Each structure stands twice: as structure tokens, then as C-alpha cells.
Amino acid sequence: MRHIFVWDIFVRVFHWGLVGAVIMSFYTIETSGAPFLFPIEVHAQAGYTVLGLLAFRWLWGLVGSDYARFRTFLVGPSGSLSYAKGVIQRLPKSYAGHNPLGGWMVMIMLLSLTFQAVSGLFLSDDIFFQGPLHGLFGDDVSKTLMSWHRLNSNLLIVLIGLHLAAIVVHRLMGEKLVKAMITGVKTLAHPPVDHPALGEVKIRWGWALVAVLVGMTVTLTFWLG
Tell me: the pLDDT tens digits for 134-143? Predict the structure, then answer.
């Protein structure tokens, strides 16, 4: 068995912070929102938090530690199909970071979440809440974004369901992904194909500070605006 440090502290905090914010956003819009007096406001604040986290992650995906970078886990169609074939044959290659299919799932979820958070800035319930950018492009655009916002929320439920299913499948294959996202360390039975070229995970602390400040600035701008 091999123990490999994969996920830096920033990726892990982002992940669990995003989980909490998304759960809160769904709870406050799909239920009565108790005990909050104005659940729609809490929903909006959760959305602003998601937006700040995503701002951090998009930047960290470009300048962060090796396994956090998009270029590390996004592969072309041929590589993705080859990995999928291996999964079907129950002979998948071992990856320390995201495998090819998981990498594309991460990207799709990031894009969907980004659209959800950004579109929310333009919305209004005409009673208690009005997004900070509502009316910027006119009422027609806001109404269209409202429809897409609702449709995309359904897509997100599907994507989250697929993500949870993948966690279960990997657990059955011997990979404890939840534990890895808590400790940062993956335990693998076979040498991962993406580890030798990367070596030790190196955190670029200067860029980490920039990315964190960008994320916090985005969230606080809308929280306090």
C-alpha cells in the first residue's frame, strides 16, 4: 500500500466549505428554512460564499499545488475513453489525483456551480430579496436567468448524486476518497500513473495568499454590499 499526500489544505478547506454552503443554499430554498426568519437572505449569503470559494478555486486551479491544477487532471477524449474502458473491464489505472472521468466531473460541477452563483446575483423574489445586480441588464434578462437558475439547480442535484455514487464505487474499489479529502493523503494499492512526474505536493504560498484574498474579497463584497 502506498500513502501519498495529494490534497493541500486549501483544496480541502475549499471542498468542505463548498459542501456546507451548497447544503445551506438548498436547505433555505427547498424547505421552510427554519429557524431563519428570512431564509432567502441566508440563501443569498450562502450563494455569495459559494461565489467566493469558486473564485479561489478557479485561480488555485491555475497557480495552485500540482494536483490542484486543472492541467494535471484534465485529459483529452482518448485518455478519458481509455480510462472508461479500463473501468468497464475492472482494470482501471490508479491515479493519485483525479482520474480522467473524475477530472471532467469536477470541471462540469465547477462550471454549473459558477453559473448558479453568478446568475443568483441578478435575481429577485419581488418581496424580500433583490440581488445586487438585479436589473442591470433589464427585467427580461433577470427573468430568463431565473428560469435557468432553477433548471441548473436540478442539474446540480443530478451532478451531486453522480458524485456521491462515484465515491461509493471508489470505496468498493478500495479508495477512501472522503478520508483522503479530510487528511489530504490517499492510500493506493498500486503505483499511480500521475505521481512519478509530479513528486511531492508543493504549496506556492505567495499564490495561496493571493487566491485566498481574491475569494474573501468576492464574498465580503457581496455580503457587505
Answer: 878 888 888 9
